[in-house]
Design a protein that fits this description.
By secondary structure, the protein is α+β, with helices and mostly antiparallel strands. It has two domains: 102 residues, 2-Layer Sandwich (Phosphorylase Kinase, domain 1), CATH 3.30.200; 178 residues, no CATH class. The longest helix has 28 residues. The two termini are 30 Å apart. The model has no long low-confidence stretch (mean pLDDT 90).
Length: 368
Amino acid sequence: MLRKEKLEASPLEAAPEVNALLRRLGLGTLDGDGISAFAGRNNNWAGRTSTGAAVFVKRLDGDREESLVRFGRALDFQAALLAHPSDDLRCPPLLGADEEGRLLVFAWLDDARAGNVMATDGEFEPDLAYLCGRAIGALHRLPAAADTTPHPLPPVWALQAIPLTMFSAARIAELRYWGLLQRDRPLVAALEALRERESLVEHRPSHSDLRLDQFLLDSSGLHVLDWEEFRMADPARDVGAFAGEWLHHAIRKVNSDVDKVYGPGTTLSHELIVERGSAEIARVRPLIAEFWRGYLDSGVDVDDDLTERSTAYAGWHLLDRLLATAGTQTRLRAIDLAAAGIGRTALLNPGRFTETLGLAAPSRPGSR
């Protein structure tokens, strides 16, 4: 799994609104030295200001109307958590915001480690997975979110045909992947059925864009980041996303040390991919199971169909991750096709895959 790398921050001279907001908040200013940025869809700046304040500033970029919606969702979550604080669910304190500039200023947890980095380093322990489950359970117990619009993913419309603009911008591997998905009629039907099932279940306040890099652990505990997709949705989306992240991590691990284990230049056979993939999924299963135990221990209500829907969403999450990967490659590798097969299995037969993922827990485990 890719680390969330630090990057060189964009010049503040090109974004004077950042220091203007920091001054209005009484936090001083950032200068060009010692400022970090992190990979993501939005420009961001992290560092210590002239007053010594540790700040993380995010600017929601892109279409102005769409970024305003994301800005509103982020503030809606902050208001909900402020009104209903939880020991289980925390995020870095919001220090200020500016709607016109689409800026959010948070306290910077400069000693924190991201969940994806800990996963890559083999340091994501079951106890941490349990805390993640409790955090998402607390999220699903908050009062209703303001945004009730349907989530845009999976994009079932694109499973019929992608628009010319997407076609023109796509790489060859991405187009091949879309073609595989579109020709797989049972898979298309399963994704359409999943969207239909979502419309029939009770929606809860949901993160709706959950990934391992959005969990931060520092000396004060666990924090959850990036609330721009906060909305009412099927709680299975968040549960399935956590499980899907570990499926994605397991599949990436299959290819990580091939040269070391089998010798330089080795290409894994289908049989070896299946063997190593099964072993990796078994290795991460306890983490998913502990997340699920923490989720149930949070006291959240769980409907009878949640594990199956969550498993199906885990399958979609894996396919979605692979679509993003295909957009950076010139061809689909054997490991990519194997991963697609796992995602497909989870979507077509979620009831048979729940135990494999560790989601088939008792109806209500005892408290920890």
